[in-house]
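Weekly sync notes, structure subgroup
Attendees: PM, AL, DS (notes)

Item 1: joint prediction request from the bench team. They want all two components modeled as one assembly rather than separately. Inputs as received:
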Amino acid sequence: MTTSLLPGVESEFRRAVPRVRFCSLRVYCRRDESLAVRQDVPEPLYRSENVGAMITVFDRGGMGYAATSDITPEGLRRAIQRAVEWARLTAGRCVVDSDLIAMPEPTGEYQGPDKVPWTSSSLRDKLDLLMEQSRRLKAADAIVDWAAGLWHSEIETLYLTGGGGRVHQSFHLTGPSLRATAARGARSQTRTFGGHAFCQQGGLEVLETFGFGSAAERISAEALQLLDAPDCPQGRMDLLLAPDQMVLQIHESIGHPLEMDRILGDERNFAGTSFVTLDMLGNYRYGSDLLNVAFDPTRPEQLASYGWDDEGARAQKVYLIRNGLLLRAMGGVISQTRSGRSGTANSRADTWNRPPIDRMANLNLEPGAGTLEDMIASVERGVYMETNNSWSIDDSRNKFQFGCEFGRLIEDGELKGVVKNPNYRGISAVFWRSLRAVGDASTMKVMGTPNCGKGEPNQIMFVAHASPACLFSDVEVFGGA
Amino acid sequence: MQDAFFELADDLMRRIGAGEVLLAGFSGERSDFVRFNRALVRQAGSVEQRWLRLELIRGMRHASGACVLTGSAETDRARAADVLAQLRQCVDSVPEDPYLMYNAQPRNTHQVRPSALPESRAIAEAVLSAGAGTDLVGILACGEVLAGFANSLGQRNWFQTASFHIDWCLYHAGDKAVKTTFAGDRWDDTAFQRTAAAAREQLAMVALPPKNIPPGRYRAYLAPAALREIMSLLCWGGFSVKAHRTMTSSLVRMTAEQVRLAPSVTLREHGASGLVPLFYSGGYVRPPVVAIIEKGQFRQALCSPRSAKEYGLEPNGPEYPQALEMDGGDLPSSETLQALDTGVYIGNLWYLNYSDRPACRITGMTRFATFWVEHGRIVAPINVMRFDDTIYRMLGEKLARLTSECELLPDNDTYGGRSTDYMRLPGALVEEISFTL
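Output from the run, pasted for the record:
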């Protein structure tokens, strides 16, 4: 349905471009399917098709948008008129004079990977696969709830500008999930397949990338282990984080603080501000010398890879933190104009009916030199934690508390027993300075965060993080009640 | 949009075959959004969207699909027919669903809330005027929200409301700010000016030199907006029958071990409040009230049609509260500072999550107007603090009093579309809350 609509929308836009300083059309088409089997019973199949368009107009210093699911010629003309009205109404009253913004006029095509198409496997085969995983999750009577799932999204976007810009991009996103809950009385422990983080661009090959077919028994066994495990000890000690917890740590305490719209104050009423200020760029020590973080939308399989952002800026890899030093923040063309600072191609909208805002895309922590075994061997007393299950951080992105599903003690350089309810607290501004070892490429995983909430009106965006395992010193860890 | 949806539904119902049942849901909005920063406009625009959701049932097999509608009858008929054809193909490939349940006894409802809204631009002007000379940041959302349901058994339901919601902060500096909400379905400029003036007055208090408090246990007052954050976290599986039956509910100790909250805690889902649609999934109509917790004791979990079939219960609504109301207590709101005496006045909380879900131990941050109070008088705003404590202490053994007045707190969420959910909550005076960082 989607592709066939685009030529008509494009020709209508070209005919109807108003006489304004800048006008763009962003068409967004998305097809989703989600499948799940819970307790060996298939959950209802759900499919959706989402198609709509946003018109953006800059004129006389003002800015306005109009989004509509009516992409007929009449609908587009009404949206253009409405966007022009908003631009005129806001002229002279915007946080930035839109006349000063040099919007890109890009042209190009981008197509993400899709080696094993979602449709290459029938619905019945996919349900059979999930049924098999579900049955394997139910390893004991104490497993009281269990489920296996798959989701897939196919996204196609067309970005046109009144000045002749045209970018066409298409993406396939796939994510598998497994969950097992073990319970005894009112106490339960849940183990999952990487939380929500095991998702990438691509088709069904993503399942193999994450080892979906061989994980069910381990997840179930670990849920049962946790049920009998002691609570995580309390105290200050070394903390070794697996990549599926590093995803969250990077996301919350590097990603969000470095989004320029937060630094500029746009998010203070909702998602919050940032402890980072513009004057810190180029001279602030964010972490130890081992910390190297890049905005990298060019790694094809990663969830938030693209050729251009939603305001037409060409995506390229840029270091944000190098050897622990903060170099730049993440801001799209508008934020760069407002701040006078260089940024990144990260102006993104979650769908056609929300305007682009500054978003992290792929924000990756670069690998170091140590193997996982090296890092464990270097720890006298500490805890190893896997898979995020709780996240909380203040509105400046400083004081945080995160929890994981699964922990193991490390004593005298060796992994020891399993501990439940592993949590830790810290302050972003000092936490990253306690980074004392970064795992090598063998410990690296490329993961995604499919549901990051931000913006007013609210948006849920997929972002992504690649990270090795990392070791931190002198962190406050603790267990459950 | 009501006529267009029902005409489309009629067309679809004519397309179903023998032995098929079709459920059709509609959601839509015509909204204007104006986003502010530094008392200027950051983004301004309009959103018009219409969604159709279909569920095709054949025996015990079913499949669901959704598509966006354009508003053009001819185009929408074609799109809907396309979705229906896809579902018909899917139904053959899915196994029978033992938990399929839908309402087979048609109940029509019609809710159209009267409103009198000015143009969004006029409200935006009022906000900008009220914020002149201050550091105002926030959003205006304004317009119509619509929902509908139809099925091949002849049921028709419609819900339509038009409202505005202004959610804004006045910032002093850094993270010190006063958060304010003004919402309704008719504009009252005098009331808005009064609310805006009160926010400016509070700004003077957050401008006082801030105080750092060390970790420890403190007597505290949770304003209704702060209590809402706690309730929002509990909504995350706390009241769901499925979560209780699978031992994953954060309140599982209340049902499995009969642990109680304080006797003053009574919570209900008020489906008949008129503020939310009466109908929900499967074409069911909500009961007027579901008593979830009464006098501190867990009474009834929220039960979706699917869970009802699985556990042999009667459905009573979505398993996530949409109209959560809590009884007030005996503390006049005007006396909260005196009753607090010395401790922390918490205006807002932020980013709550579980430290230990089965124990309902939760953590989160103070935010915005949160003050240190001595002898019933505000002394200083406090720098943000993390709390980490259990619900069984905060709303159980350590709950001192609830305010007699309850505040209507419309949900300002706009994920996907504008929410019509709300909570109506009192403030809570707590003997001690544990602050950790």
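Discussion: The CA atoms of residues 11 and 188 of chain B lie 43 Å apart.
Action: AL to compare against the crosslinking data before next sync.
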